Amino acid sequence: MIKKLNEFIIGEKGIVKTVGGDGRIRRRMLDMGITPGADILLKKKAPLGDPIEISIRGYSLTLRNAEAELVGLEVIK
User: Fold this and answer.
1) Which residues contact 5 (CB under 8 A, 6 or more apart)?
2) Range of the domain at 25
3) Cα–Cα distance, 14 to 24 (Å, whole number)
4) For the whole model, what pTM was predicted?
5) For the domain that residue 43 is a member of, what is the CATH number?
6) How far, in Å, CA of 60 to CA of 53, rounded?
7) Which of 1, 5, 24, 41 is the right S-S partner for 55, CB 3.0 to 4.6 Å?
8) pLDDT tens per residue across span 10-43
9) How many structural domains compose the chain?
């Protein structure tokens, strides 16, 4: 099942399948380690849902919802 990162609930895990966006945004996310095949765990959400904190490749990363919406993941049960 493919889901966007901004749709995840706290504690949900997934494997990156797609990274969208235009050139600069996509390049920035790839540079931060959000690449196809990477495991992501949603750790926290701000009270209003933006931004979110994820764990990827052994470190924590904070993303805005607009950025998280560009990442498609396969949910790990």
Assistant:
1) 14, 40, 42, 52, 54, 63, 68, 69, 71, 72, 73
2) 2-76
3) 24
4) 0.88
5) 2.30.30.90
6) 7
7) 41
8) 999 999 999 998 989 999 999 999 999 999 999 9
9) 1
